[in-house]
Amino acid sequence: MIDTLPRREREVFETLCRLEAGTTAEVRAALSDPLSDSAVRTMLSRLEAKGLIERTSGPEGVRYRPAQETETVAVGALRRVIDTFFAGSAASAASALLGMGERLTPDEAAALEAMIDKAVEAGAVATGKDKA
Fold this sequence. Notes:
The protein is mainly alpha-helical. The protein has a domain at 2-66: Arc Repressor Mutant, subunit A, CATH 1.10.10. It is built from 6 helices and 2 strands. It has helices spanning 7-19, 24-30, 37-49, 70-85, 90-98, 106-121; strands spanning 53-58, 61-66. The protein has a two-stranded antiparallel ribbon. A hairpin with a 2-residue loop joins strand 1 and strand 2. It is elongated and about 50 Å long.
């Protein structure tokens, strides 16, 4: 559903996901190309009507947050990117990410190693024996 949103609605939604929750003013301030306050309110209302975000009232006013966990939304978006640009290969996508020149912290490298080890142990990695 997210990939069918108009560009600005998708930008507002992605900004809210990045913030995890926020008021209209907070969302507006976080946009790379800010919209008017009323335009942000309109887009948040549209996203709410589509079931993508929820609102709550609190002491600081109305706050919005994604209806789904941000991680769930991120996994879906990443799956679409992998399917579209990397022919469904998570390894190709990971290689592209690592090849972008960003240096990994020791903690990030250890986490990646642990995830690879876990995938191998769970049998989620093809071995040379699988071809027989």
